[in-house]
């Protein structure tokens, strides 16, 4: 007797089709609309190349900073229970929920002359408004939660007994982390870097408040759209999508687990 397919399965397939179409159709239309000549002329523009490079460069710096300060912190959250841990984890997630123009305003408020920290920063030559430093600060703020949460999950997946064995053999906590835990978590770390970079390179709302100039690619796309419309903004958007796709694929390749050698 032929088995009847449950209607719910058809519902899941239909919803999956709707989701995929919802994501792909606008992107396919945007990529297909500009002509090859439009794309060529756009990438020959020094301002466009500089804005794309600046987006990649500042996002990479944000990911590196997140790696430097976020990896030890993610390990602490994964391995230790302490009073207020849930509250601390909620604070880490705040940049995900806060509207991003508010992020830019908050950072400028902290770095302004009316705040003691901003006063101190300016005295030592650190400026946030309209600088690459400001862009990196904003991108780190919005990308750090993605890195910390991803790496924390990676550390939690590593059996604690492996660390206990290393410690029982006389290795220090630092040596155990560098020789045992960190190598086992490298895939999660790379995925965390991907997510941090992807989130940072797409940021617009906070960046446009802190630093309209120098102009990163999302800000340039916005400026060209408001000034000239779709025709002049689409080619820049296509190039940014292609650059992001290349970076994403490279990082995904590096994050794949190595096959066991036989």
CATH topology: MetI-like fold
The CATH superfamily turns out to be MetI-like
pLDDT < 50 stretches: none
Number of strands: 0
Number of helices: 13
- At the first level of CATH, the class is Mainly Alpha
Distance between the termini: 46 Å
Beta-strand residue percentage: under 5%
CATH architecture, please? Answer: Orthogonal Bundle
Overall tally of structural domains: 1
Mean of residue pLDDT values: 89
Let me know the largest β-sheet: none
Layout of SSEs?
Elements: H1 7-32, H2 36-43, H3 46-79, H4 85-97, H5 100-111, H6 116-123, H7 132-156, H8 160-168, H9 173-184, H10 186-201, H11 205-210, H12 217-228, H13 230-255
Helix pairs in contact: 2-13, 3-7, 3-10, 4-7, 5-7, 7-10, 8-9, 10-13, 12-13
What do these coordinates show?
The chain has 262 residues and is mostly helical. It has one domain (38-255): Orthogonal Bundle (MetI-like fold), CATH 1.10.3720.10. Helices cover 79% and strands 0% of the residues. The chain has 13 helices and no strands. The protein has helices at residues 7-32, 36-43, 46-79, 85-97, 100-111, 116-123, 132-156, 160-168, 173-184, 186-201, 205-210, 217-228, 230-255. α3 crosses α10 (186-201), α5 (100-111) crosses α7 (132-156) and α7 (132-156) packs antiparallel against α10 (186-201). The relative contact order is 0.14.
């Amino acid at each position: 007797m032929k088995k009847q397919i449950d209607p719910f399965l058809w519902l899941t397939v239909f919803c999956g089709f709707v989701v995929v179409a919802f994501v792909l159709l606008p992107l396919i239309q945007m990529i297909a609309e500009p002509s090859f000549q439009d794309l060529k002329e756009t990438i020959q523009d020094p301002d466009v190349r500089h804005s794309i490079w600046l987006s990649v460069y500042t996002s990479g710096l944000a990911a590196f900073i997140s790696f430097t300060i976020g990896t030890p912190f993610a390990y602490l959250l994964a391995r230790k229970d302490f009073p207020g841990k849930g509250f601390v984890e909620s604070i880490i997630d705040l940049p995900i929920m806060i509207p991003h123009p508010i992020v830019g305003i908050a950072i400028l408020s902290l770095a302004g002359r009316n705040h003691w920290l901003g006063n101190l920063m300016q005295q030592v030559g650190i400026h946030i408004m309209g600088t690459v430093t400001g862009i990196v600060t904003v991108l780190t703020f919005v990308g750090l939660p993605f890195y910390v949460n991803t790496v924390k999950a990676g550390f939690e997946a590593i059996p604690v007994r492996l660390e206990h064995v290393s410690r029982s053999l006389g290795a220090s906590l630092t040596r155990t982390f560098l020789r045992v835990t960190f190598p086992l978590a490298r895939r999660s770390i790379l995925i965390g870097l991907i997510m941090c970079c992807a989130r940072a390179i797409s940021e617009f709302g906070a960046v446009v408040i802190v630093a309209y100039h120098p102009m990163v690619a999302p800000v340039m796309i916005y400026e060209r759209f408001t000034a000239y419309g779709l025709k002049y903004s689409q080619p820049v958007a296509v190039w940014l999508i292609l650059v992001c796709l290349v970076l994403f694929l490279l990082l995904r390749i590096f994050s794949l687990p190595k096959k066991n050698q036989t």
